[in-house]
Write a structure and sequence with these properties.
Blueprint lengths: L18 E5 L2 E4 L1 H7 L6 E7 L4 E7 L8 E6 L8 E4 L4 H4 L1 H4 L10 E3 L1 E3 L4 E5 L2
Antiparallel strand pairs: 1-2, 1-7, 2-6, 3-4, 3-5, 4-9, 5-6, 8-9
Amino acid sequence: MGWLKHERDDAQAATRAPTMAFRPAGIAFNAEFVRLAHAFKSTRATLYFDGEKQRVGLRFHSKSNDPDAYTLTADGGGAGAAGGRLLNAGRIYERYSWLKAVLERPLPKRRFPVQRDHDDDLWFVEVP
């Protein structure tokens, strides 16, 4: 038997659109979203949930006195302002079963386009 190329079942097409992806460790933001939201200037983010519409919102900041904020860390390729970020918020899935169900989807189906709610000053995704 000869060589067989391994075909990934978790591959995601590269995109220049701003996206948020749900992972067991938390929420990942691609580099495009980090640039758009100026999140590279922030060290934390606070989450907001709308269970009725199945939306996850967030606000980036660097306020260490917000006890409800989660820490942002570098994620993926690139360094500094060029790379993505990960919000270390894996415990949210224990509280929101509709969101936990997303983790059972294949990786490409866990990534969602980001929208802006200018009225509430939040970035958000709808999770169908």
